[in-house]
Amino acid sequence: MRRARRSLSRDFEAEILAERQLRNDRARTKSFPFLLAKKLTRMSASPLALLRGSAPLFYELLAENEDLADGPGGDGWLGGDMHLENFGAYRPDPRSDLGGKEKKRDAVFDLNDFDDAVIGPWRLDVLRLCTSLLLAGRELGADGRLALDLTDRLLTAWARASDGEARLPPRPRPVRALVAQVSARSRDALVDARTEVVSGRRRFVRGPRYADLPKAVASSVASALAAYVSCLPRGDQPVGELRIVDAALRVAGTGSLGSLRIGVLVENVKPGSYAIFDMKEEGAPSPAPLVRAPRKLSPAERVVTAFRSCVARPPRMLGTTRLLGKSMIVRKLTPQEDKLAYKELAGADLPGLAAYLGALLGAAHARGATKPPRSAWSPADLAHLRANAIRLAGVHEALYLALCDRIRGLVTDG
Questions:
Q1: pLDDT range class, residue 23, cuts 50, 70, 90
Q2: Which residues pair with 120 in a beta bridge?
Q3: Do 315 and 91 form a contact (C-beta atoms < 8 A)?
Q4: Dihedral sign, CA of 159, 163, 168, 169?
Q5: Which helix or strand (DSSP H or E) is residue 191 part of?
Q6: Alpha-carbon torsion 321, 326, 329, 330, what sign?
Q7: From its phi and psi, is residue 351 left (phi > 0), alpha (psi between -120 and 50) or beta?
Q8: Interatomic CA distance for residues 82 and 70, integer angstroms
Q9: In the β-sheet with 243-250, what is the strand arrangement from edge to edge?
């Protein structure tokens, strides 16, 4: 037991973890080195931002310290990178979960990121989401007592929803407001916000969001987009021929920075009618040190399968393709995509929101279950996960400061 404690202490030494994270980030951004500084800057914003950008390290820690990864049973599709920012609004497929009938395409609010999805123990998602909530406490304006209370509410709501029978609680005020706001947005506004007209030709605005693609990549985009369209269900295939107007490297996310991500601006057969597609490279999921990814699915197929398995109303035109040997997920961007502004939430909104997020995750687990637990998780099971989340939050607080210190040194050295 003493030997295990000494090993655990060294595994959790902040300076060592910061160096490991820097190695991971350098490897991740090897193809696009200029993105390393962007990722480090984004992770230095807060402990929660650090957690968002370090999912592989999170699972490496769990693999090396089995007491943190153990807990109650229940297996199925996981989000894999669960945290507060991986819930959001989007425009769903109007035919999903509706018996094939069309319906007004209002936005929904649900889990919205399955890049790291795997089939594994539910507790991994629950543990990571609780850790993110504890780390976000000060950003939410919550003291330690309230952050713990919010975590308890999240866990209780998850437990009720994961049995597959309990209905979701009413949408809290911030979620209702976000859905109402994004539902009124137009496609033209989305295109105008991200593009400009140069010499009579519309193109992505180069800058913080978009950069030029390497020529070899740019020349392969057309065939990759055509392969994606051809594999879509007939009802999802766009009417008329799509003409690519521009393609650019898309700079978005935190943990995914460094992977190949492409914005594709297309014009439909109707002149002046534009749409934007997002192509994103998918690789090994972050939980790989603990859970093996399905062998029969390509990385992009794994993501699409998990999304459709866990979410009642997934996005429309979600598909896959390959580009220069890379497995890519493709989706059409819509103006309804947005996230909650957590820093602007009122304190009175927090309890209901924490419970709602927990319920959404529990419902997703119930839908994507492959091996439900023999019995519901007990209060002791939930307390065990909360205790482990507290430990991991402390590790990430220390890691955050150590990494910021290393980033300061890199800037000074540069």
A1: very high
A2: 76
A3: yes
A4: negative
A5: helix 187-194
A6: negative
A7: alpha
A8: 17
A9: 210-211, 243-250, 261-267, 274-281, 326-332, 319-323
At residue 18, what is the residue type? A
Domain residue limits, the chain: 2-86+116-182+350-413, 186-332
Q: Environment class of residue 343 by beta-carbon count within 10 Å: exposed (0-12), middle (13-18) or buried (19+)? A: exposed
- Residues 147 and 350 sit within 8 Å (Cβ to Cβ): no
Structure-token match 């706001």, residue found: 181
Confidence of residue 304 (pLDDT cuts 50, 70, 90): very high
Query: What is the rounded CA–CA span in Å between residue 10 and residue 12?
Result: 5
Q: If you write DSSP's letter for every residue of 16-46 in order, what string do you get? A: HHHHHHHHHHHHHTTTSTHHHHHHHHHHTT-
Strand partners, 369: 76
159 neighbors 355 (Cβ within 8 angstroms): no
- The string of pLDDT tens digits covering residues 229-260 is 998 887 777 766 789 999 999 999 899 999 99
What's 374's DSSP letter?
S
3-class secondary structure, 281: strand
pLDDT of residue 322: 98
Q: Which helix (H) or strand (E) holds 10?
A: helix 2-11
Cross-strand pairs, 277 = 264, 332
Tokens read off for 120: 């594994």
Could you tell me if 313 and 93 are in contact, meaning their C-beta atoms sit under 8 angstroms apart? yes
Q: Look up residue 145 and give its two tokens.
A: 């007592």
Alpha-carbon distance of 173 to 353, in angstroms, equals 8
> Token pair of 355, please?
């419970």
Euclidean distance between CA atoms 367 and 389, whole angstroms: 25
> Distance between CA atoms of 42 and 40, rounded to whole angstroms?
5
How many angstroms separate the CA atoms of 349 and 66, rounded?
Answer: 36
CA 10 to chain centre: 30
For the chain, the straight-line distance linking the first and the last C-alpha, in angstroms and rounded, comes to 44
CB 162 within 8 A of CB 366: yes
